Amino acid sequence: MERLKAQFVDDHRADLIQRVSVVMAIADALMSAGIIHREIYSYIQAASTSQGKMRELLDALNTVKAKSDFYDLLKENEPFLVKDLEHQEVLEIEPRPKYAKTLQVQTIKQKTEEKQIRWNKSSKRHSTKVEELVKKNDIKKVENLYFYKDEKYIIGSGGSGTVYIGLSEDGTEVAIKRIIKNPKNNKVFENELKRLRDLKLESENIVRYVTFAEDEDFHYLANQLCESDLEDYMKDLRQQERNDKDNILRKIVKEMLLGLQVLHHAGVIHRDIKPRNVLIDTEGRARLADFGISRKLDEGKTTVYTDRAGTQGWEATEILNQTERSGYKKSSDIQVAGMLVYYILSDGKHPFGDMDREGNIKIGKHSLEHVQDIVAKDLLEWMINKDPAERLTIDEVLRHPYFWDDSSKDAVLRKLGDRPEIQNYETLSKIHNLYIEKEETDPTATLTIYEAFNQLKIDNEKKRNDILAIVGEDLKNLWKLFNTAKDVTEGKTFSNWKSKLSDIWTDINKKLPEDVLGLLRVLRNKLVHANVRNEFEERNIFGLFPDFFISLHRVAKHLNWNY
Asked: What positions does the entry give for ATP binding (predicted)?
């Protein structure tokens, strides 16, 4: 009888997740009866939707008895739902006095005919193998999972287990990681399961968890079946002649990084970023996977100390250079993610090479020769810097100009161009030049800012206050502003922007400094006031200065300007 009830729960899993509304009442009774533990109950309680709560609850029902007890409670609390879902004839009703309330339980007539395995078709790449799997007479079933233990159905392997194509009992195509039980693997399995079931990690760029099962010897972790991992995807793409290849690769890069952003926002460090741990789903979307050795930061902490982990050649500089227990930060993930970005954009190359890769990572010796896009190179330089403090955060990575389209560029021009420093840049330049003429270590010692106002005949009180708010009476911010602009402009394509733009626009302000911020002022004014946005495309304005936006990005970061 218990098996029939458990079969009902397995058969209607998807419907139960969508339709059960009294999840917590059932969870309360199950915890009181010792069927689920308090930790599981807390996961159920923390879920933000009834569907999420129900998914957590069903995942915790790992035995026939647990599922049978759940059925009893479901029948009591939602009898009409059970009646609607039951397609079999009701044979009898028996009381179950085990719980505080008297429960009425329906038993179900078992089908005499052979049960057909459900299959919700999704994958194109694996469809033939799944079809063969469904037809197997000796298919292996472990709780709510079907698979066949044969080499032809293996789609992956790693240190902790082998991955098989399979099906969950509700027909969902899954990749089943079979993990042999031992103390080390048990910890890895529990850690990955905890990450996958964390509601904070639910994302279209994180591999989707389906369910898990176990028998005497193995854990079975079932995730969505994806079409390929990144390594195989790159091989397939290499054989195709596509004009949009650059856009495809940029998309994959961004989606992988969005997955990492979800992790980092949840305080999780992945620790094993590599091509095999990025999966491509049936819609061509990249999803970050394999969280067995990931670690969650304690509240308020930025580092987690643990034994060294990861894959050779895909580890951060500081991890390789540590001799004892390793201290992992989010920035460690960033450097390795940068290696992966280069791998994607360079058609499978590694920025630290193939010969003595670890030695090169340790000293920061790298080459970006296989990527031609200077904006992509700038992003990579930030990410793979050997100094963790110099790397971008994941949010900064995704705000980098490499990901900007024309709309984003317009928004940045407006946002930064409206800063008071840029609105007053011509006046600030006059003040700066006045002090430079003094040629003294501390020119303010002989000429105060107020005396500078008088010499330059800046009489407007509001104007004076605006300038003071920017530079301060000690003028330190003035020097920082112009020194930064000078350093960033030197040797760049826009270092002589006046001559290039004079042929296009005869009315540009030639009193502005010929640096990155002077150019920002001109482009912002043209964009906002002159209504010549169409000329930006027609004249390829941004193309004239391909390093302008990455330079502007560096100025904004150095000066702590938000945009």
From this structure: 181
Asked whether residue 118 is domain-assigned, the answer is no
> What is the average per-residue pLDDT within 516-527?
94
CB 2 within 8 A of CB 63: no
Going by the DSSP 8-state scheme, the letter that residue 557 receives in this structure is: H
Give the DSSP letter string of 165-198. Answer: EEEETTS-EEEEEEEE-SHHHHHHHHHHHHHHT-
For the stretch 85-103, pLDDT in tens is 875 434 333 343 333 333 3
Taking residue 214's Cβ as centre, other Cβ atoms within 10 Å add up to 17
Is the same domain home to 461 and 521?
Answer: yes
Residue 116 lies in a domain: no
> Is residue 32 packed enough to be buried (19+ CB in 10 Å), middle (13-18) or exposed (0-12)?
exposed
Q: CA-CA distance, 145 to 114, in Å (whole number)? A: 17
Shared-domain flag, residues 161 and 137: yes
Longest dimension (CA), the chain: 102
Domain count, the chain: 4
Contact 273, 336 (CB under 8 A): yes
Nearby residues of 377 by Cβ (< 8 Å), 6 or more positions away: 368, 371
Give residue 164's domain range.
127-224
- DSSP category for residue 207: P
Burial class (CB in 10 A: 0-12, 13-18, 19+), 85: middle
Please say which residue of 52, 77, 108 terminates a domain.
108
pLDDT tens-digit map of 249-306: 999 999 999 999 999 999 999 999 999 999 999 999 999 999 888 998 988 889 988 8
Residues 263 and 395 in one domain: yes
The first and second tokens of residue 72, run together, are 């009893």
pLDDT score, position 79: 81
- Residue 120 covered by a domain: no
Burial 231-255 (b: 16+ CB within 10 A, else e): ebbbeebeeeeeeeeeeebbebbbb
Query: Would 563 be classed as within a structural domain?
Result: no
How are beta strands 209-214 and 173-180 bridged, if at all? unpaired
**Is 61 in contact with 41 (CB distance < 8 Å)?**
no
Residue 204 and residue 214: Cα distance in Å, rounded?
27
217 as an active site residue: the answer is no
Pair (415, 529) in one structural domain? yes
Binding-site members for ATP are 181
Q: What is the CATH number of the domain that holds 144?
A: 3.30.200.20
Give the phi and the psi of residue 93 in degrees, each rounded to 5.
-125, 130
Do 540 and 395 have their domain in common?
no
Do residues 415 and 365 both lie within one domain? no
Q: Rounded to whole angstroms, how far apart are CA atoms 115 and 143? A: 15
Q: Which amino acid is at 236?
A: D
- Residue-wise pLDDT for 37-61, tens only, equals 877 877 787 777 778 888 888 888 8
Give pLDDT, residue 91: 32
Q: Looking at 69, 72, 198, 272, which residue is catalytic?
A: 272
Cα(97)–Cα(106) distance, integer angstroms: 14
Neighbours of 361 (CB within 10 A): 28
